[in-house]
Amino acid sequence: MAEALGTRTVSGGSTNGSVGPAIPWQDRPAGSKALVWRHRENPVIPRAPMPGVQGIYNSAVTPFGDGFAAVFRLEKTDRFPRLHVGWSEDALDWQIEPEPVVFSNWTDAPSHYAYDPRVTAIDGEYIVQWCGGHNGPTISLARTKDFRTFERLENAFLPFNRNGVLFPRKINGNYYMLSRPSDNGHTPFGDIYLSESPNLVHWGRHRFVMGKGGDQVGQWWQRTKIGAGPVPIETPEGWVMIYHGVIDTCNGFVYSMGVAILDLDEPWRVLYRTNQHVLTPEAPYEVSGHVPNVVFPVAALHDQPTGRLAIYYGAADTCTALAYTNLNELIEFTKANSAVF
Ligand code: BMA
């Protein structure tokens, strides 16, 4: 049973410290020593939450008003990924808009797919980042205040790029966004980079942040590619960046979850990085689905007074799942089990 919580301070990609709704939470199962444990009723959003839908995964959730808003990657039976807004009081039960997001100032061409959205609360508005198809995948952006009207910004980068993740505040006066340059297909490589912008339009000062693992560093779980996940969480120890790491196997890619801590003022500097995954596909809904063996973290809700963290992740490119941890424990584990390379 999820324990009942009162109103708490919540930062889900927001660092404004505003009082927000109670985030989902279940205690670590009795007898378990797991650092990260799964919501017992996973998947929180099943593969077909409404008629004509066959997948909803890799999606962003954020505190909004008295409850929560989401931007979902939703696929109907044409299997074409689009962004759909969702509303929830408890971040567990969702009302999902049947029609995709429409932009006030931009008409998406029919070829413009949209997937793997993130949402960053910053300066009193929400910036949505996703992988959009514009003659190849790249990072698209839009701003909203109410999740009803969305204004498109110019694409941040040239194709090919994925996993754009905007920090929740300016650093030294500029916006910062992580990304993972890629190719036009099922990219068999990939490292995390950081770019800077004064205005969310012009991006530059691109810096390497961290690379995939491999034989030299004894890191096979992340040997093929890595990509940033939820909006980084600001802590006194640095920015906590949850990310995915991928191994190629004779049965395809396997996506797991890892953690890094980045310097607060120079976030291209990696202070710590887990030398092992902290969640890997094991549950039936993670090992079986449209793409088996995928745990793909994209959003995190943080309850500052308790340190509770609820992490949303796409499972097997099919449904949406939830896992829990304690942020302080996650940081301590990352520091104690770190390999920076
Ligand atoms: C990546 C993206 C993700 C997907 C993952 C696993 O390249 O396409 O949307 O979850 O592959 O299939």
From TrEMBL:
Q: Which residues fall in a compositionally biased region of kind Low complexity? A: 1-20
Family matches, as InterPro entries: Glyco_hydro_beta-prop_sf (IPR023296), Mannoside_phosphorylase (IPR007184)
Q: Which UniProt keywords apply?
A: Glycosyltransferase, Transferase
EC number(s) reported in the record: 2.4.1.-
Q: What class of enzyme is it?
A: transferase
Q: Where are the transmembrane segments?
A: none
* Region (Disordered) location: 1-25
Spell out the Gene3D superfamilies in the cross-references: Glycosyl hydrolase domain, family 43 (2.115.10.20)
One example of the protein's molecular function in GO is: glycosyltransferase activity
Family that this chain belongs to:
Belongs to the glycosyl hydrolase 130 family.
This chain belongs to the protein called Beta-1,4-mannooligosaccharide phosphorylase
